Amino acid sequence: MTVELLHDMKPEIAPDEAARQRFVSGLRSFVLNDLAADMRHAYESRVLPAFRKETGRDPVDGIEVHRALRGDPAFKAYSATRVHAQRMVWNSVAPVALRDRDKRRRAAEAVAAQPGSLSLDSALEMPSNVTAIDVHLMPGSYVGREQAEDTGAIYDQGLAVFSMGLMGRNLDDIGLSMSAYIKARYPDFAPACILDLGCTIGHNTLPWKQRYPDAEVHAIDVAAPGLAYGSARAKMQGQAVHFHQMSAETLGFPDASFDLVFSSMFLHEMPRKTIARVFEEARRVLKPGGLMLHMELPPNTQMGAFEGFYLDWDCYYNAEPFYKAFRDEEPSELCTRAGFAPDDYIQFVVPSVGAYGEQAVADMVASEGSRAVDSQTTGRLAEGVCWFGFGSWAR
Ligand SMILES: C[S@@+](CC[C@H](N)C(=O)[O-])C[C@H]1O[C@@H](n2cnc3c(N)ncnc32)[C@H](O)[C@@H]1O
Question: How far is the CA of 282 from the centre of ligand 1 (A)?
């Protein structure tokens, strides 16, 4: 299932285009549920026994699972279909976004005077992790090529197809779930100033403004098209957010200016040396008692070899070259290396608010504090999704 977006820049979709998008969403669901289950069955019933017979042991990590599995027909069916489905996501929305450009411009102009702001920096040097590849096979990556102006719309509409309804109509389930957890777990924490790093179109920024309406909320990204679209998208939903074209490696904010520095699905798209600089910057701009918080893919160290392989698949076949190196890191060590104290580290797994409701988050906090990383659900965009969060308090 795909979703109809909530805001006024949602596209006018002809019936044949809607049918195409529903088909692509359905194909992704088939790959991520049925073909994934077939691949797992193939692994357990023939690949693993053959590996054990040859080596006398089990695979130690995802690399060995990948090597053993990649000649198997179930792996090939899963991988080939998933790559095609990914390309079809973008192909199913790009013509719609292009055709709708004028309507979108008018909708953005109509809310231009609403609270919130957009500041762009055309002199900003773009990092090669964004420009050198078509990240997750999205043509033109976050900066776009011939359809640069439509990149924000393509991302928004593409995510609606890609996420199969699991992110909600505003594609904000991560932000809603993470902020629900923080509010329930730390009721006395009332951030007055919030920063979202690598916000793209701000879809997971808006829930922080909704959760903490009195807070001043800022969101940064290096890519201008998404920011321009995201700023209009926020205004038409009555959310005053300040969008800035800025690198998370060199934040243009003074020391100790934020209570919460958040990111979502951001770190796995950058080299490790960039992550180190991003964490140091986050620590610099946090006030004492502030929180750095990242929603991310769960680390390989906390999952089995097959599950590690399953998530790292994107590194090899979905133009996500930094994915595995990030997932091989121990999140607590990323924090301490940037100068956060080991005792101030936090991590948790939160049930999706969209799938389970806000009460499930409150119940989890009240009962056990957090779920453990679950190989079947954590960070996997499949039924029963749960989100992994980690970070550190600042002193
Ligand atoms: C996967 S998207 C993040 C998506 C979004 N935060 C979410 O919740 O779904 C990664 C974003 O990071 C941005 N980005 C990459 N490197 C960056 C950097 N050094 N500083 C700021 N943004 C960066 C990209 O332009 C892109 O918009």
Answer: 15
174 lines ligand 1 (CB under 6 A): yes
Count Cβ atoms below 10 Å from residue 95 Cβ, excluding itself. 13
Does any ligand 1 atom lie closer than 6 A to the CB of residue 265? yes
Q: Is the CB of 290 under 6 A from ligand 1?
A: no
Token digits of residue 356: 């389970």
Q: Would the CB of 204 count as within 6 Å of ligand 1?
A: yes
What's the confidence (pLDDT) of residue 186?
96
- The b-or-e profile of 73-87 (16+ CB within 10 A means b, else e) is ebbeebbebbeebbe
Confidence of residue 369 (pLDDT cuts 50, 70, 90): low
- Cβ neighbours of residue 369 under 8 Å, at least 6 residues apart? 185, 348
Cα of 222 vs centre of ligand 1, distance in Å, is 7
8 Å CB contact between 275 and 299: no
Tell me the per-residue pLDDT of 195-209, one tens digit each, with 9 for 90 and over: 999 999 999 999 999
Radius of gyration for the chain, computed over Cα atoms and rounded to the nearest angstrom: 21
Each residue's pLDDT tens digit, 66-99? 999 999 999 999 999 999 999 999 999 999 999 9
Is the C-beta atom of 144 inside 6 A of ligand 1? Answer: no
- The distance from CA 352 to its chain's CA centroid, rounded to whole angstroms, is 13
Per-residue pLDDT, 375: 59
Q: Where is 103: in which H helix or E strand?
A: helix 101-110
The Cα–Cα gap between 148 and 131 comes to 12
Nearest ligand 1 atom, CA 142? 25
Domain boundary assignment for the chain: 15-116+125-160, 165-393
**Which CATH architecture best describes the domain 165-393?**
3-Layer(aba) Sandwich (3.40)
Q: Find the mean pLDDT for residues 130-148.
A: 88
pLDDT at site 146: 78
How far does residue 18's CA lie from ligand 1's centre (Å)? 28
How many angstroms is it from 240 CA to the middle of ligand 1? Answer: 20
Alpha helices, H only, 127-286: 128-131, 151-162, 173-185, 206-211, 224-235, 272-285
Task: List, in sequence order, every beta strand (DSSP E) within 107-235.
Answer: 117-119, 193-197, 216-221
